[in-house]
Write a structure and sequence with these properties.
The complex is a heterotrimer. Chain B is mostly helical. In chain B, about 70% of the residues lie in helices and about 0% in strands. Chain B has a single domain, classed as MetI-like (MetI-like fold). In chain B, strands 1-2 form a two-stranded antiparallel sheet. Chain C is of the alpha/beta class. Chain C folds into two domains: about 220 residues, 3-Layer(aba) Sandwich (Rossmann fold); about 80 residues, no CATH class. In chain C, a hairpin with a 2-residue loop joins strand 4 and strand 5. In chain C, helix 5 crosses helix 7. Chain C is globular and about 65 Å long. The two termini of chain C are about 30 Å apart. Classes of the chains: A mainly alpha, B mainly alpha, C alpha/beta. Chains B and C meet through loops of B and loops of C.
Chain lengths: ~325, ~325, ~350
């Protein structure tokens, strides 16, 4: 494994992230500013002087471009500014409150999706074209097709209301409250990973080096475990990047349905109430998370695949 | 959210002869009948039971949403005060029941279907137009242009697009045309990548090289070689994008950012239904079922088309 | 007792277009220390024949017949039993060295697992064996190279690794499926010479599948010629090269470009293509391309067997070169003897 190659590769990739971030920040900034109405419109009608004072305090009276650069400067020092909605809170504090919640739900969902999804996919691949395979894949297709805001109410109805086994929502860091949101969030990802794993495993099992392994007289578990597993899982690893983005997207709906105080909820509220700084903060924060995760996935992939040469030919 | 990471580019096929020994047959002066890629693919698609059944269901669905509201005795916004929040009942004529203000769920579901399917189709066409143009340009010109354009795609790909859609809806209000544009504008990336990859590959194939060596000009090459081979992959992709787009619109409606009353879509209906799900589950079940069945079927059809165009890719 | 005795081996595949009979009743035997060549065009069924013997057919394939290896019928063995024989008593090397090694595992891992699994050796001992074997197949600097990955080896080197891997447990039989076809011509010669040397040192039996007759002449004892899933001729190397009986064999030999031919001579070819296995011609499968074919060839030709083991599936008598008198055979399959 080429040590210095990895370093060089990582450095280039890290540098490449900066333009991405800039684009992200810029688009979000100008977009939210374009919304008619300002952050203080929902207040009771304020006398013009106080309004002017507020605007000045938050620099809303400056030209847009100037506000932009001022904001950039703030970002570099990791200061997302005060929230317009929640007057006593800074955005940093709100993110610090909301993110751990979203992270727990999302992280657990990701783990669940990975392990359950790959297991199902491998079993289906090993039993290709049997009843097991068809039924599992049919259910997986269902998992991809049913939107989570359909599944969630159904789950709540059955498990929480009728059976009373689990609480219907809310958040207090207790395990029972985590079950439904995590499972609902994970379902489409489990399904997608299952299909992906199955396809990949089937392809690997047909490759020449598996034929060689069999010809060497290796027993089934060694052929699968030692020779087939790693190559089959590579596409799944690659998928982890987009999967994270998907989980973040899904979390917006999940947090709303299950009344979970995560970043997704904050974002939606902020968008509706024109809380510029909060919205910007969440978008940038999540953007950074996605970018970082894609970066880690890249590294992981390169580490697992000895064939990768670190040039742009990919 | 569903990025078809497993999307493979189907390999273009050359004409296949049906005669068992074409050499001998040709020597004997017989006509060697060719079987084109499309006929082959169509036959393979028809053999895929899941895809065929899904296709039939979708056709029926289309008929229902177009014709259903026309033949139904109820209007979508008619409030039947005698029968509010009542379960499905043939006698009252409300086959799917009514919602809290007495609107017939069947009609609402079908009309919602019109909107959902319309959004699916139009937004997909928007993303198709942007994506194909972008991808073809990048792939055809190659080199520096291609690298810059694809870098841009990479950057945008990394952004949490759902958030931007939400922002767009918040900023510009909830006009339906905006929904088409917003979703389409955010979804074109995958299409661009695929088209660009395919174009690049096609540019360098031996049969394009051969065509150029025979003196065929660019326009004819594009017309005869590149576009037909693009069509296949684009068609597959369109079929897979439609459910994604419908899903996004449903999300938006669910969050209250979708189409505005009195127009309704399946997402909005599910949202409404979810509120009353304990007392009136039928308000949730019917729109949810229609939505799920539609997505399910489109996915199977898309899968079937992909398998039909490149059987080696069978997943 | 012969090391390997194959009787009426048939292989078929279920395809969407129908059932394909890839191998249609092959018999042969292999003695200890012998090298047998199986020769034929692509699609003749050569690979499927040995895959069936090894139990490595694809899911849609099925085989019938018997393959007695040291007295035990491989065709009837469950996978667990076969696994003990594969890699240890029978080794196989394949045509495409570029894809036959696992790109995600080191050479060491892939080689040592064979001896560690079959002979219970420890890691160090196993590595020692592997390094020795790499040296025997002339890989330079084996102690270092053994830790590398396949993509760091060239095609020829990878094939050497495959050979080394196959020989690690000192098998009684090595099956080589077109081992040099995918390599450059100069490398081909090296590989085949290497294979011959190693075989000589250990008195190992070998089945060599190839469509390169030159290679056959160098290192093989006997030859089986296959066409469209059937055996059309068999005999010693001398028999086949100097006295080919079957028109197909004659065509094959005539097609080999020779250095001593005049520059103006056209290259000899056998006209036409091998038949579509889904739609076989009646009678002799070669008749569409045979310059000697007559009406009688629309019937299934008999398999003529001589005392010295030479065989020919043809209506042309092996000794006289004349057409045999027509006999209406009741059985369709070509396992009947015919004398004259």
């Amino acid at each position: 494994m080429n040590q210095e190659g990895i370093l060089r590769h990582s450095a280039t990739r890290l540098l490449g992230l900066i333009p991405t971030l800039l684009v992200l920040i810029t688009i979000a900034f100008f977009l939210i500013r374009m919304a008619p109405g300002g952050p203080f419109d929902s207040e009771k009608l304020l006398p013009p002087e106080i309004r002017a004072n507020l605007d000045a305090k938050y620099h809303l009276d400056e030209p847009l471009v100037q506000q932009y650069f001022r904001y950039l400067g703030q970002i570099i020092t990791l200061d997302f500014g005060p929230s317009f909605q929640y007057k006593d809170w800074t955005v940093n504090e709100l993110i610090a409150r909301g993110f751990p919640v979203s992270l727990t739900v999302g992280g657990l969902a990701m783990l669940l999706a990975f392990f359950v999804g790959t297991s199902i996919g491998i079993i289906a691949a090993l039993r290709q074209n049997t009843a097991v395979d068809y039924s599992v894949m049919g259910i997986a297709m269902l998992g991809i097709s049913i939107p989570n805001f359909v599944v969630a109410p159904l789950l709540i109805l059955v498990l929480a209301v009728y059976q009373g086994w689990l609480p219907a929502g809310g958040w207090d860091w207790s395990i029972p409250r985590m079950v439904l949101p995590v499972v609902t969030l994970a379902l489409p990802v489990i399904a997608y990973i299952a299909r992906l794993t199955r396809g990949s495993m089937i392809e690997v099992l047909h490759s020449n080096y598996i034929r060689t392994a069999r010809a060497k007289g290796l027993p089934g578990y060694l052929v699968i475990g030692r020779h087939a597993l790693k190559p089959a899982l590579l596409p799944v690893i690659s998928f982890m990047g987009p999967a994270t983005a998907g989980l973040i997207t899904g979390s917006v709906v999940i947090e709303r349905i299950y009344s979970i105080p995560g970043l997704g909820s904050y974002f939606v509220q902020g968008a509706l109430n024109r809380d510029y700084t909060l919205v910007m903060g969440v978008v940038i924060f999540y953007g950074v998370v996605i970018i970082l995760l894609n970066f880690i996935v890249d590294l992981l992939y390169a580490w697992m695949n000895p064939k990768i040469r670190y040039d742009e030919v990919q | 959210m569903n990025t078809p990471a497993d999307m493979q580019i189907p390999k273009p096929q050359v004409v296949k002869a049906e005669v068992e020994d074409p050499f001998a047959a040709a020597m004997a002066g017989q006509d060697v009948r060719g079987r084109s890629l499309w006929v082959d693919a169509w036959h393979r698609l028809l053999k895929n039971k899941a895809a065929v059944i899904s296709g039939i269901i979708m056709f029926i669905m289309l008929l229902l949403v177009i014709a259903g509201p026309l033949v139904s005795p109820w209007e979508g916004d008619f409030t039947d005060w005698d029968n509010t929040a009542s379960p499905p009942n043939f006698e009252t004529g409300h086959w799917f029941g009514t919602d809290a203000v007495g609107r017939d769920i069947l009609v609402r579901t079908l009309e919602g279907g019109r909107i959902s399917l319309l959004v699916g189709l139009v937004a997909t066409l928007v993303s198709l137009a942007i994506g194909v143009t972008y991808g073809a340009v990048a792939g055809y010109y190659g080199g520096f242009t291609d690298r810059i354009m694809m870098r841009l795609v990479d950057i945008i790909y990394a952004l949490p697009f759902m958030f931007f859609v939400i922002l767009l809806m918040v900023v510009f209000g909830r006009h339906i045309v905006l929904i088409f544009v917003a979703i389409g504008a955010v979804n074109w990336l995958d299409m661009a990548r695929i088209v660009r990859g395919q174009t690049l590959g096609l540019k360098n194939t031996e049969f394009v090289e051969a065509a150029r060596a025979c003196g065929v000009d660019h326009k004819a090459i594009i017309r005869r070689h590149i576009i037909p081979n693009l069509l296949g992959v684009v068609m597959v992709y369109v079929t897979l994008t439609i459910p994604q787009v419908i899903l996004v619109e449903s999300f938006l409606s669910f969050l209250g950012l979708g189409v505005q009353e009195p127009m309704s879509s399946w997402g909005a209906l599910v949202n409404d239904g979810a509120q009353d799900m304990e007392s009136a589950p039928w308000t949730l079940v019917f729109p949810a079922t229609f939505l799920t069945v539609t997505l399910y079927c489109f996915n199977y059809i898309g899968d079937g088309m992909r398998d039909a165009l490149d059987p080696k890719d069978r997943a | 007792m012969a090391l390997l005795e194959v009787r009426d081996l048939r292989v078929q595949f279920e395809t969407p277009e129908g059932v394909v009979q890839a191998v249609n009743g092959i018999d042969f035997h292999l003695e200890s220390g012998e090298t047998l060549a199986i020769v034929g065009e692509s699609g003749a069924g050569k690979s499927q024949l040995v895959m069936a013997i090894m139990g490595l057919l694809a899911e849609n394939g099925s085989a019938s017949g018997a393959a007695d290896f040291k007295g035990q019928d491989l065709m009837q063995m469950p996978q667990k039993e076969l696994n003990k024989i594969r890699g240890r008593e029978i080794a196989m090397i394949f045509q495409d060295p570029m894809t036959s090694l696992n790109p995600f595992l080191t050479i060491e891992k892939q080689m040592t697992e064979v001896v560690m699994h079959h002979q219970g050796l420890g890691k160090h001992e196993a590595r020692g064996h592997a390094v020795e074997m790499l040296r025997a197949v002339r890989i330079p600097d084996p102690e270092e190279r053994v830790k590398q990955y396949p993509h760091e080896y060239s095609g020829g080197m990878r094939q050497r690794v495959m050979i080394a891997m196959g020989l690690l447990c000192e098998p009684d039989l090595l099956i080589a499926d077109e081992p040099s076809t995918a390599l450059d011509v100069t490398v081909q010669a090296q590989i085949m010479q290497l294979v011959g040397e190693l075989r000589d040192k250990s008195n190992m039996s070998m089945i060599l599948i190839t469509h390169d007759l030159a290679v056959v002449a160098e290192i093989c004892d006997r030859i089986i010629v296959m066409y469209a899933g059937e055996m059309v001729e068999a005999g010693t190397v001398d028999d086949i090269f100097y006295r080919p009986r079957h028109p197909y064999t004659q065509g094959l030999l005539a097609s080999v470009p020779r250095l001593d031919r005049l520059a103006d001579d056209e290259l000899h070819t056998i006209p036409g293509n091998p038949p579509n296995l889904l739609d076989l011609p009646s009678g002799c499968r070669f008749r569409d391309r045979c310059s000697l074919a007559r009406e009688v060839c629309f019937e299934a030709p008999p398999l003529q067997v001589q005392d010295d083991g030479c065989m020919s599936r043809c209506f042309i008598d092996m000794n006289s070169g004349e057409f045999l008198p027509v006999q209406s055979n009741s059985d369709e399959d070509n396992t009947g003897e015919d004398s004259m």
